[in-house]
Amino acid sequence: MPISPGEVSYITGAASGIGRALATSLVNQGGLVIIADLNGEAGSKFAAELNDKAGSVVAISVKTNTTIWEDQLAGFQEAVRTFKRIDYVFANAGIAERPWLPPFDPETAASRPLLKPDLATADINLTGQLYTAALALQTFERQEIGPSGFRGKLILTASVFGYFPSRAMPLYAASKAGIINFMRSTAQYYAGKNITINSVAPNLVDTPIAPEVLFIPFRERKLLSDIQLVLDQFEKLLGESTLNGQALSVKADNAWVHPADTHMLEENLPACDLISVEIFKLFGDKTA
Ligand SMILES: NC(=O)c1ccc[n+]([C@@H]2O[C@H](COP(=O)([O-])OP(=O)(O)OC[C@H]3O[C@@H](n4cnc5c(N)ncnc54)[C@H](O)[C@@H]3O)[C@@H](O)[C@H]2O)c1
Question: What are the transmembrane regions (predicted)?
Fold first, then answer.
């Protein structure tokens, strides 16, 4: 659904790739954007380009490391100071897999100390997005219903590896699966509160997330996802759209809604429902 002119979008990781394409598309529709990126230089340059083209301030850049709460808090505060409200938050910043452990090798294993894993992939792709979500939901909660009929909409960029395991990318898959089930869980909680939470989950898209050489065999086999089709999925979740708790997925030129796992759900539902009731009682939450 189209956005209303003047609606404000906060996008992490918007200096490059999917976030950058999304910011461009939103500004072209009359929106205002906050570019929250670790690469402050690229973010500022991009914001200046958008402003020059529009002839007014349609974009601001905030240098943000999404894994640092204080950075993200400052970014949200700056966004609200400048544009008064935030209609859409895109928790999008992410990185490709970084090896968390050395390659399996029983020959050399005993000569290495037991190493602390590198959890950077999970820190950025899971914790960073959760910080963005926490700020988005609290910002939406304290603002009135906006021009499209909502307090706000949160969209988290996941991946098809949120559903499918990957032997080469265990932390990426774990983070994206975490995002998908976080999205479905919070979508249940915020349903009926004029807030929607959804995910867009592409397969491989040609962006600077990985070295160019990685994309060559995918390009040859036509396995890269069409970035316009990815943008179309984001757009389905905006404006007056009432979609909530959905994972909109893309592979090459195919788009689909990925269903939630319902295997054995009926058998588990009584206990799952009761645990929610009891936990809300324990936490003193009367809204649920
Ligand atoms: N490109 C793909 O194949 C693909 C497929 C599925 C999902 N995704 C997801 O899409 C999202 C965007 O990826 P992309 O392909 O556009 O990548 P990209 O590398 O082009 O852009 C990512 C941006 O995020 C920023 N960033 C990285 N770490 C950050 C941090 N800690 N704080 C703030 N900004 C940070 C980078 O500076 C960069 O500008 C990611 O969540 C990624 O996992 C990408």
Answer: none
- 109, HSE (Cβ side, Cα atoms, 13 Å): 6
Nearest residue (CA) to ligand 1, atom 22: 13
Domain total in the chain: 1
- Domain CATH for 30: 3.40.50.720
Name the residue range of residue 42's domain. 8-262
CB distance 157 to 95 below 8 Å: no
Low-confidence ranges of the chain (pLDDT < 70): none
Q: Is residue 92 part of a domain?
A: yes
pLDDT, one tens digit per residue, over 190-207 is 999 999 999 999 999 999
Q: 245 burial class (0-12, 13-18, 19+ CB within 10 angstroms)?
A: middle
Best residue among 18, 39, 234 to mutate for probing ligand 1's pocket (most ligand atoms within 8 Å of CB) is 18
pTM summary value:
0.98
Does residue 174 form part of some domain?
yes
